[in-house]
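Hi again,

Forgot to attach this to my earlier email, sorry! This is the prediction with guanosine-5'-monophosphate bound. I've pasted everything inline since the attachment limit keeps bouncing my files.
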Amino acid sequence: MAKEGILLVLSGPSGAGKGTICQELLRTYPGLNYSISATTRKARVGEQHGVNYWFVSHEEFQKMIKDDELLEWAEVYGNFYGTPCRQVKEMLKNGKDIVLEIDAQGATQIKKKFPQGVFVYIAPPSLDELANRIHKRGTDTLEVIKNRLSCANSELSYVHNYNYVVVNDEVQEATKKVAAIITAEKCQVTRNCNIVKDILSNVNK
Ligand code: 5GP
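Structure tokens for the complex follow:
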């Protein structure tokens, strides 16, 4: 039976850079897969259905909740977001590693169902830098930006629910740190229970 894959959960306030780190990890970390969330938010310019998100209506989202198709879901900044179960469960069972980029409420729900997950909080170097990044990104209206910044304080307090915190001063460095965390987690003895049996069974090969 394949060894269960790593479930990596990345969270952090909007503008901390978790999306960029996630993309860099997917580009550079061998065999890592992305869990595409469902959302009721409207697609931003350049975003694609089935690539960035599954963009669904409120009715469709409610149906997914009712049919128990979501591993977790939350209302974030006035829109609904959720992680479809099937892909995540299948990948983990087949030994594939998967990354979820979700908010802290969702991470709390995942932790209850998958305590063996690896929970990494991406923090900004400062609140000023966070504000700079959200403004520079230029994808949101002023009202949305204000809302996101006002949530940042309370979001930072969730850091204690995570196993690791990585301050994103510089994307490449932060990505390397998250990659090192995944690699270290893969070497945990508890994830390698059959290691002695495997070594011994290879003696005469
Ligand atoms: P954005 O609208 O900027 O793409 O995402 C807004 C927030 O929703 C981010 O904090 C992001 O991590 C979070 N998010 C994205 N997908 C999910 C999901 O499936 N579940 C939860 N709980 N949060 C999500």
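Helices lie at 18-28, 58-66, 85-93, 104-113, 127-137, 142-156, 171-186, 195-201. The mean pLDDT is 93.

That should be everything now.

G.
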